[in-house]
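Handout, tutorial session.
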Amino acid sequence: MARWSTLSTEASNPSSEGLDALSSEDVVSLLLEEDQRGLEAAGRSRKDIAKAASWVAEALEAGGEVLFAGAGTSGRLGILEAAECPPTFGTDPEQIRAVIAGGPGAVFEASEGAEDIAEDGAAAAKELGAGDLLVAVSASSATPFVLGALTAARENVQLDAVRVGIEQDWDNRGVLAMDGARPVPSGTRITIDLASPLPEEDVEDLVARALTKDPWFLTLRDAQPVTTAVSVNCGIA
């Protein structure tokens, strides 16, 4: 949980405190108020949303495919969107598709842990080619399955396996809220092992660029010393 603790999507919503003690009408009012906040946020991003819609239109007009990729509820919304396009807009079912972490079964039953497998996301997007478009659906923007798909589509990089290890140094006095130490790690070491048929330099460069855009990594790095070691094709398959 520590990995996600800084994300607003994983935090408790102060507005819903005492939800179980509210009347049904008050619960409905609260839900509508929160939905309104979502609409307001979408309104502030209308230009970016319109730009994304134009990309979808351009891909379809040129004969390309559109693939939605997501995990959990976000993935299910992508599935619904892809399923509705043929009857609503008359599109070819093969032209607009969707994948979800954990496979088709995860649509009806939660597949815990599937969202954390970046290489599954990369595999789901590896068939995309020039002119195709990947739509990554993620509330947190940090879901490994989705990032794996996005990276594969953007970089056209084949990753056969990915293994990440994290070691942290803690002062237990901080964990116990005692004086003399902070309740955060004093240092973190991250090892990233990958298997890929591509040249080692290309894969290492990809990882370096990805880390500069990873919100979890940037938050972690800003709070403490962090060292990162990347190896390619070193005993992982």
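The second record follows below. Compare its token runs with those of the first.
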Amino acid sequence: MATSDPDANACGSGLFQGWASRPWYLTQALPVRHNNKQGDVIMVLMLCDPAYKSQAGERRVKNPSPKSIRKARRRFMAEAKQGDPEAQCSIAYCLLEGLGGPKNVSSGVKWLRKAVENGCVEAIYDLGVCYVDGEGVGKNRATAIKLYKRAAKMGHLDACFNLGIFHEYGRGVKKSVPLAASFYRKGARLGCSSCKYNLGELYDSGKLGTPKPRLAFKWFMRAAISGDCDAMFVVALYLKQGTGVKKDFPAAALWYRRAAACGDVPAQCNLGLMYLDGIGIRKNAKKARTLFLKAAKRGDIKSQSNLGFCFEFGMGGSKSVRLAKKWYERAAAGGHKEAKAKLAALSKLKKRKVR
């Protein structure tokens, strides 16, 4: 597959964003805990009280009080001492993160081990990540892999994904793309959208032999249907280019729209171009300009150049040479060659008017 869409925008405002490789976070093993503290707190409350969500609704869940977190921690500890494996895993989580009380990594690992002995799949996975990171234990990737394999057999999605990553890149194990694919397939069958995406990338890149765009499209589509925003973008690109599937501009616009709604910047740029040129969608320069602005504010140089084009020629709104220059300058500073050329052309035009 080409790394960028070969079709230039008819209005001359830039090229469609291309897809060069999978996002970096789909090449890294997943952590035991995510950095979203709000999500962590909600998870603790949900574990504490299974009826919490249905009783309180989403509004209350969004702002749990420190008192609720402390109460959850006390309840986890009480049930953990009684031998409940899920509670043992939950109190370990609180201790490792410092939720509802002081952080105590060694005590957290101790409770993880107890939960592992009692067969808690989440604890098996979490202890594996502790061995990868050296958190509360000495770093030992071989032990981590054993724990991941045990968790994967029990149907843990993240364990399947991590094992796929380790085997694909040879991290702690002998590199084996076919074995990585087998773990991705298992995770995909269990519903892991990241595993589906990575399978698509393996078929697209030819890591499993010759590139197989039809199979790649199938897995990207499955990941997109599962809600993966990056996959939505790639599906749209495949449909736009006719890679592994018949060209379908309206369908491409649909998937770009879904990816853009997720906040995918390249999708916002490409959808803007489709609106600007009326490719697969009704022409609407105003919507194109709005999409370019969203992506431009997030640092996308192609969108910045496209937005400069809109201001220069009054596409989708008022004309403004000053704002056109502003956005061309930002794009040019980021290395966009076409923006540099347009900026130079604007400067020459201004000099002629002065004379």
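Points raised in discussion: The longest helix spans residues 337-354.
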